[in-house]
Write a structure and sequence with these properties.
Two copies of one chain form a homodimer. The longest helix of chain A is centred in the first third of the chain and has 17 residues. Helices cover 25% and strands 23% of the residues of chain A. The first copy, chain A, is globular. Chain A has 284 residues and is α+β, with helices and mostly antiparallel strands.
């Protein structure tokens, strides 16, 4: 783009401003982004923000469900990799950030009652109760960054789509009211890069880890890879191998299925941005 | 030993019988050993039994402590690697074995009241309550086997001693009433094998994983490596590097410190023998 060709207020100029603003935003650190979110100045998805830093899925449940859900996560660490759990009533993280407030620092919240989405909110201080237990779970953004660094293509990113997600026939290990099948994401990988993709993601056990399945989708109950249950279909090029990773939608689906009287999650894509680097989450 | 030289009931003959019985015992599989234990025919330490199979530490707590202790383990996975947690009242494992009974299948139990050892028992069926929550945690036997396979010497095994254990100045992340310093084990490693020892144990995240510290003991608050807080001192040969791993005594110390009205553990060394191979616990 030739800057001299731009006239103020033409579409080209506005685009340039937009690119500039986005570039600036990408330079902000997690603390600065969380401050924007807290002030109500960012309510959009968080993909691409604070590159290098781990983002987390949010699940808030009343205390009476907390032991069973914690145990569900312990029993199913691949779909439910816990990054941090806060005691009843606590809304400040200790590990993922020293100055975050779970009530305000997520761009958009989904409020579910008895498993049904009631509304979305930008701030949940008005709903907060002393018996709320907060769970923050790892997300595949972290390992995708590592895969991209190794020149392993991410088709959904190339095609500017949501990652395709499928409900499998693999049952999670149940705990109390929490039960259901594992949900997986699909990434088509060139055959000469499959081993590398396993090696790289295996290091990231706190963000889903190594693949659940490599190859024939029907073996895990997926009938049609071009019809995902959630997200968008992506192109699988000739010879590419479908590789499936456990997905953070699993715990959300399991919680919805359990129909607790109240559950608060992040709105999909609108994640909690932590101060922990993805590299700090790699196995040690 | 020349068998023809043995006369019945001489010390040599009795020793041969003893060795034969021990050899036979070592050939028994976990299910057979648990059956012996259940019938009251084995109440001794389990080191060396069912080689290749994972052994587990036991902690049983009343339900009111269960969430906080589960969260303590989630926050401190290196000293407290959870292998399986049973719901309140359940005494049958699902993952570590399909036919084990936690009330009877451990050679010896310690019964603690308000943090004090009241007695040891061979069977806890008479104490069992519907609100008991059972935690089974990984133990370093699993990774020691892998280290020995790689010809990394285990000094305490060579010297037929208990592994030396030290209370460090590293605080565990607290949860509810559970708090305290991390306890570590010491293994002196030849300098050319330290990297290999890190690599090997790093694979075993569910049994304490990679070392907590390598080298200068004073950096983690250990004043004198020849005076362990628990276990026995071992020889550190000239040039050997002291390497420290998180120890399963940590959760026990933390629970004793919290003084719950009742806590049941295995008697040290008298572990639960699972049907899961150590290799199955290696990171995947």
């Amino acid at each position: 783009m030739n800057l001299y060709s731009l006239t103020p207020l033409t579409p080209g100029f506005l685009d340039a401003i937009k690119v500039f603003k986005m570039k600036t935003l990408q330079l902000l650190n997690p603390k600065e982004i969380r401050a924007l979110i807290r002030k109500g100045k960012w309510a959009k998805p968080t993909a691409g923000l604070a590159m290098g830093y781990a983002q987390a899925n949010l699940v808030i449940l009343p205390q009476k469900y907390a032991f069973d859900f914690l145990l569900f996560c312990q029993r199913n660490p691949k779909p439910c990799p816990l990054l941090e759990v806060l005691e009843p009533g606590r809304f400040r993280t200790e590990f993922l950030s020293k100055d975050a407030d779970i009530q305000t620092d997520i761009p958009r919240y989904n409020i579910y009652r008895k498993g049904k989405l009631e509304k979305t909110m930008r701030d949940i201080r008005s709903l907060w109760k002393e018996d709320f237990v907060t769970f923050l779970l790892g997300c595949s953004f972290s390992f995708e960054e590592a895969l991209l660094r190794a020149k392993i293509p991410m088709r959904h990113i190339e095609q500017n789509k949501n990652v395709p997600m499928f409900i499998t026939n693999i049952p999670c290990k149940p705990s109390g009211v929490f039960r259901g099948p594992m949900v997986v994401t699909l990434r088509p990988i060139p055959p000469d890069k499959v081993t590398r993709a396993v090696q790289i993601t295996a290091r990231y056990t706190s963000v889903h880890g190594a693949p659940i399945h490599i190859g024939d989708p029907s073996k895990i109950g997926i009938k049609n890879v071009s019809k995902p249950d959630f997200g968008d279909p992506v192109t699988i090029k000739k010879g590419e191998v479908p590789v499936f990773w456990a997905c953070g939608v699993t715990p959300q689906a399991v919680v919805m299925n359990a129909k607790p009287e109240l559950c608060i999650t992040h709105t999909p894509g609108h994640m909690f941005i932590s101060d922990v680097l993805n590299e700090e989450l790699a196995s040690y």
